[in-house]
Design a protein that fits this description.
Layout: E1 4-7, E2 14-15, H1 17-31, H2 37-41, H3 48-52, H4 61-76, E3 81-82, H5 86-95, E4 99-103, H6 108-118, E5 124-126, H7 135-140, E6 143-148, H8 151-160, E7 164-167, H9 174-179, E8 184-186, H10 192-200
Parallel strand pairs: 1-4, 1-6, 4-5, 6-7, 7-8
Antiparallel strand pairs: 2-3
Helix pairs in contact: 1-4
């Protein structure tokens, strides 16, 4: 198995905000519990249940998670689009002889729906993981660099002992990503191919 570059999903590889916004609105309609969709999509990254805990009483959170996930395919998949440079970044990773692995807090089967809909082929998807919880998957899949938009992604990379590459396409700023241990921070994925080629020199060949 060759080495890999790991990517977070939401706001790293895809802009999923419009569809997630629509899903939160559908959740409000289904449950009668108001969720401020504008606020919720401004802080994507942590696990879904963490967000829903702001709106539902503790005994109802898991039920809300299940309902949200049942609504997700019909509301969130079609509106999502690749972030700037995402397709080119995946192509660049493959051109380097490396695998593409998605490690995300989103449920794996929902992440797969996004990749299939957008025609973005990846080698592995590990879902329902966040921050330190992503580290084992990064190690298992031989991820050499992990790319993400959230401080939790930089914590994941640091925990796994690999460089974290931050992108400011999500809720976290340059300073926040840098402060969380990012080895590099980019405005978006358009600069990733050049960065990977630069830092791959001297890091040893993929095996």
């Amino acid at each position: 198995m060759s080495d890999a570059v790991g990517f977070d999903l939401d706001m790293t590889l895809i802009d999923s905000r419009p569809g997630i916004h629509a899903t939160y609105r559908a959740l409000t309609e289904r449950t009668g519990v108001f969720v401020d969709a504008d606020l919720a999509i401004s802080r994507l990254g942590p696990p879904l249940r963490s967000e829903l805990a702001h709106w539902f009483p503790p005994p109802d959170v898991e039920s809300a998670v299940s309902t949200f996930r049942s609504l997700y395919p019909d509301h969130a998949i079609a509106p999502a689009v690749p972030t700037a440079g995402a397709r080119e970044a995946i192509a660049a990773v493959r051109a380097m002889g490396l695998r593409v692995v998605v490690v995300t807090s989103k449920l794996g089967r929902l992440a797969e729906l996004h990749m299939e809909h957008l025609g973005m082929a990846v080698d592995e998807i590990a879902g329902d993981l966040f921050a330190e919880g992503k580290a084992a998957a990064l190690t298992e899949h031989r991820v050499r660099w992990y790319v993400g938009d959230h401080v939790g992604d930089m914590i994941a990379a640091r925990t796994a002992g690999v460089p974290g590459i931050g992108v400011t396409t999500g809720p976290c700023t340059f300073d926040e990503l840098n402060g969380a241990g990012a080895s590099y921070v980019l405005p978006d994925l358009t600069g990733l191919p050049a960065l990977l080629r630069e830092i791959a020199v001297g890091s040893g060949p993929a095996a």
